[in-house]
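Lab manual, section 2.4: Encoding a predicted structure.

Procedure: take the sequence of the chain (115 residues), apply the prediction step described in section 2.3, and record the output as structure tokens. A sample record is shown.
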Amino acid sequence: LPEVLNLREDPFKAADYLQKEAAERDEQNLRKLMLNRLDLVVVDQFVAESVIAQIPEAEDSLEFLSPPLDVKPLYLILSRNTENSAQKLADFNEGLRQIIADGTVAKIMEKHGLN
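Recorded output:
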């Protein structure tokens, strides 16, 4: 059945050789990591960067490992109740197409080490 539904088991959840500890907020895990109470944290890079920016002492004590465990797509969500939502979506998609085509996205990705 999983093959039919194109589902896959989460590798992190399946890693029974790891002792895992859940936290309500990513900030909690990052602080535990800084205090050596955890060996590693699984967190979205952009979320972690946002949290780390709010914890000055974290910038010099934490680093991201490469390659990432997983790469997941991000989606823009627009409410259908938004005025002119269809036009806004079309405008966004056209703008995105243009900045991909002219190399702007590649430059941004390169600047942030995401190539």
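Check your result against the sample. The longest helix spans residues 85-101.
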